[in-house]
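Good morning C.,

I know you're traveling, so I'll keep this short. The sequence:
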Amino acid sequence: MEKQLLYQIAVTLIPGIGDISGKHFIAYCGSAEAIFKETRKSLEKISGMREVTLDALSNPKDILKRAEQEVEFIEENGIKPLFFQDADYPRRLLQCDDSPLMLYYKGNANLNASRVVAIVGTRNITDYGKANCTQLVNDLVDEQVLVVSGLAYGVDTVAHRTSVKVGIPTVGVLGNGFQQIYPAANKKLAAEMLANGGLLTECMSGILPDRGNFPRRNRIIAGMADAVIVVESALKGGSLITADLANSYSRDVFAYPGRVMDLFSQGCNYLIRTNRAHLMESVANLRYVMRWERLQAEEHQTSIFREFSDEEKLIMDCFGNQKVVSLDDLIVKTELATTKLASLLLNLEFDGIIMALPGKRYQRC
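The tokens, ready to paste straight into the viewer:
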């Protein structure tokens, strides 16, 4: 496992390889390790392979050394690496072409919870925004959701802190490595989140919270959520970037309206006015749009009459007379590729046919 992890991390360090091209190269070669075993002549045949990449792979000593250092850091700090082909990798992110090849995680939340809500907004939160954000999280208590945000000042902090207070699992997505918590003022909050939630980043150790990291961080927040709720935002800022990303990923976006002259309501009003977000007044709006109000019986009816593809039938046959099966059983019995299986499971979950449970298990609804 350590050797496999070494090469998975190393792939993210190869110059000229990004999230999209990295997946392409791994599929072509068969694994992360195989990329480093291929001859230069063979690699030259891969479409899009750049000269700088070929040069780096011809002498990967420095890349592998840095990857070894990261493996040591992971082990010393209790960090869980999540490669995009791993079963615990956030499945919703797999639907996004630019999802990270590798994530680093600390915590105990189920990143593939049946309902994931991202709450974002300005760092300069007003009393109005704080009241809306606090009420929103309080009203989500009975919805069995995972709350995701960015651990920044303002809306993010209120969303995380209120989630901790009411017992909702919450995950903060960082724009830096695990060598520090940013902002430092949220260090205590971050520690509290580890007890029921966690921290997630694509950044290796040593990467600082530089400005350019946060738009990339925002794509993770948008991609791993079912719905993105913008509490307050000016016309420019990270929240609107997250909303645009969410729309590009076909996620539902919601925004709280505000007074036309309020600076930190202008972004939300713009999203609503341009049909980039649903009007958000209360959790009732979220329940309605997300169809959370469907009765369990209706979900069961869906599972009875829905037509399954051949691959979906392989999955459903694994349940037999059982109501719950493990992911390991599904992998063995279906013989499907892990990434393909993860995508199929997510679609079945979205359609109310199965439900993800803790411990890599799935329940038939």
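Safe travels,
E.
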